[in-house]
Amino acid sequence: DGGITQSPKYLFRKEGQNVTLSCEQNLNHDAMYWYRQDPGQGLRLIYYSQIVNDFQKGDIAEGYSVSREKKESFPLTVTSAQKNPTAFYLCASTAPGLPNTEAFFGQGTRLTVV
Amino acid sequence: QKEVEQDPGPLSVPEGAIVSLNCTYSNSAFQYFMWYRQYSRKGPELLMYTYSSGNKEDGRFTAQVDKSSKYISLFIRDSQPSDSATYLCAWDHTGANSKLTFGKGITLSVRP
């Protein structure tokens, strides 16, 4: 089955630690996105990548980093510089061509700082 | 001014009610308009998509766009408990750095 897989589903991090969230897709999509979702805040864009080896900052990139070495993979690292990392993180991808009308989302990773 | 504003929630209605969900936007470059539905602890899924002013129907759902007023709405007729979810409006354009922009979302609860 084609889709987007995020792992882990739940993640606990100690203060001061970096953690990496995994996102893999087998849809052959070029564009991939990372969103953060907090209660009452909707989806806020962290980073996005339109093509391999290229990515752009979204609206709330500070404290996060990404890489796009393969088309299928777009991991997100939450660094110790992110002051309030507890949130629900969603990865998405869109098919080639514009507009980006349909984004396919993973099931999310819930990150909690302990 | 924020690019996207969505009516605050949450919203609770009895089964069978007509529901109206609304968003406004400020960026005139937005050309394509979408509604996503998100069930609890799941990723959002595309519900409807439209690019022109006017109405688009899909079963019990109607998406309405007014580009002159920069206003979009989602109407749900004969609402069901299974419609209980968070609804997110979204926009995109075909210019440089095209990317989906989402509203804050409104949580709907349909009471049996």
Strand content of chain B: over 45%
The low-confidence parts of chain A are: none
Order of helices and strands of chain B: EEEEEEEEEEE
- Ends distance of chain B: 38 Å
Structural class of chain B: mainly beta
Number of helices of chain A: 0
General description of the model:
The complex is a heterodimer of chains A (114) and B (112). With 114 residues, chain A is mostly beta strands. Chain A contains no helices and eleven strands. Chain A is 0% helix and 52% strand. In chain A, the strands form two sheets. In chain A, strands 2, 4, 5, 6, 9, 10 and 11 form a seven-stranded mixed beta sheet that branches. Chain A starts with a strand and ends with a strand. Chain B is an all-beta fold. Chain B contains no helices and eleven strands. In chain B, the strands form two sheets. In chain B, strands 2, 4, 5, 9, 10 and 11 form a six-stranded mixed beta sheet that branches. Chain B has a five-stranded antiparallel beta sheet with strand order 1-3-8-7-6, with no helix packed on it.
Output the keywords.
heterodimer, A: mainly beta, four-stranded antiparallel beta sheet, 11 strands, B: 112 residues, mainly beta, five-stranded antiparallel beta sheet, 0% helix, globular
